[in-house]
């Protein structure tokens, strides 16, 4: 019965490699090559295949990739893995373009927020329900101006009034906030340190983008370049769906509609 156990273990291993390859191709925004995939899974393949050299291991990865391509090529899948520019990427199948195009047109456009707005939103998300004075105390600057922006974009809403002198309004996040960030509820929020890291990375990616000065009154301690602007806020927040349909859709049914990962970080 040893051969039965070996066949079973080999089958489980192949499924594991295919799952990893699938995850990599799904997450990649650009076509990923066989060499790139191999480098990512090489150690686990070599560890499983005792005594195998890199050429043998690469053949195993290539075979798993080909099986995955064939699997997605069947009629039961609406997505296929295509070879594009020397690599592999996922895209919707041409026969489903009509329904995907209709869905893409119904999607909400990405929300763009400035750093002050993101900071304020983070405070509300982690401290809700919270008042504007409390938010301003945490941030160290007046946050009244960005509250209107977040309310307008339906990321926050009012939550009654606090039972203190002056009865200031309390704010909390909305269902739209959960949808935009792909969260089941606020308990799924990353730690504050992780959130700050994501925000910092987002701004590093967008730092080259031009920011147009406006005549709007800047937030205290901030310059006009960082005021809330509906058209020039530097960070986009996409829908919480992991697979985001490209906004640019082929004009003809033959052109594939590609999918890529949002980064939670939308």
Describe the fold and architecture.
This protein is of the alpha+beta class and 266 residues long. The protein has two domains: 2-104, Arc Repressor Mutant, subunit A, CATH 1.10.10; 111-237, Orthogonal Bundle (Arc Repressor Mutant, subunit A). It is 46% helix and 15% strand. The protein is built from nine helices and nine strands. The chain has helices at residues 2-27, 34-48, 54-72, 97-106, 115-127, 132-139, 144-152, 175-181, 192-206; strands at residues 79-84, 87-92, 111-113, 130-131, 156-161, 169-173, 235-237, 243-245, 257-261. The strands form three sheets. It has a four-stranded antiparallel sheet with strand order 1-2-9-8. It is elongated. The N and C termini lie far apart (51 Å).
Précis, in short:
The protein is α+β, with helices and mostly antiparallel strands.
Map the helices and strands.
Layout: H1 2-27, H2 34-48, H3 54-72, E1 79-84, E2 87-92, H4 97-106, E3 111-113, H5 115-127, E4 130-131, H6 132-139, H7 144-152, E5 156-161, E6 169-173, H8 175-181, H9 192-206, E7 235-237, E8 243-245, E9 257-261
Antiparallel strand pairs: 1-2, 2-9, 3-7, 4-6, 5-6, 8-9
Largest sheet: 4 strands, antiparallel
CATH structural class of the largest domain: Mainly Alpha
Shape: elongated
Low-confidence stretches: 1-10, 208-234, 239-254, 259-266
| Count of discrete domains | 2
| Order of H and E elements | HHHEEHEHEHHEEHHEEE
Helix percentage:
40-55%
What topology, given as strand order, has the largest sheet?
1-2-9-8
Radius of gyration using CA atoms only: 24 Å
Task: Fill in the CATH topology of the largest domain.
Answer: Arc Repressor Mutant, subunit A
| Mean pLDDT value | 75
| Separate helix tally | 9
Known CATH architecture of the largest domain: Orthogonal Bundle
Main structural class: alpha+beta
Percent range for β-strand residues: 5-15%
Counting DSSP E segments of at least 2 residues, the number of strands comes to: 9
What gap, in angstroms, lies between the N and C termini?
Answer: 51 Å
Fourth-tier CATH superfamily name of the largest domain: Winged helix-like DNA-binding domain superfamily/Winged helix DNA-binding domain
């Amino acid at each position: 019965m040893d051969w039965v156990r070996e066949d079973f273990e080999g089958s489980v291993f192949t499924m594991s490699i295919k799952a990893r390859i699938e995850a990599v191709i799904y997450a990649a925004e650009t076509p990923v090559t066989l060499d790139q995939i191999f480098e990512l899974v090489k150690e686990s393949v070599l560890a499983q295949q005792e005594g195998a050299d890199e050429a043998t291991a690469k053949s195993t990865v290539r075979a798993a990739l080909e099986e995955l391509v064939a699997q997605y090529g069947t009629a039961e899948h609406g997505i296929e893995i295509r070879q594009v520019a020397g690599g592999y990427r996922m895209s919707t199948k041409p026969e489903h373009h009509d329904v995907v195009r209709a869905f893409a047109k119904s999607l909400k456009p990405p929300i763009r927020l400035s750093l002050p707005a993101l900071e304020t939103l983070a405070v509300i998300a982690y401290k809700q329900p919270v008042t504007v004075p409390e938010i301003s105390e945490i941030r160290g600057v007046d946050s009244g101006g960005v509250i209107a922006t977040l309310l307008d974009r339906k990321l926050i809403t009012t939550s009654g009034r606090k039972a203190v002198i002056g009865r200031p309004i309390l704010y909390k996040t909305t269902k739209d906030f959960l949808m935009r960030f792909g969260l089941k509820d606020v308990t799924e929020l990353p730690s504050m340190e992780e959130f700050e890291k994501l925000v910092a990375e987002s701004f590093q990616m967008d730092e080259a983008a031009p920011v147009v000065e406006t005549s709007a009154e800047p937030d205290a301690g901030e310059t006009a370049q960082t005021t809330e602007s509906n058209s020039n806020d530097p960070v986009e927040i996409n829908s919480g769906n992991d697979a985001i349909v490209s906004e640019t859709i082929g004009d003809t049914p033959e052109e594939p509609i590609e999918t890529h990962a949002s980064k939670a970080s939308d």
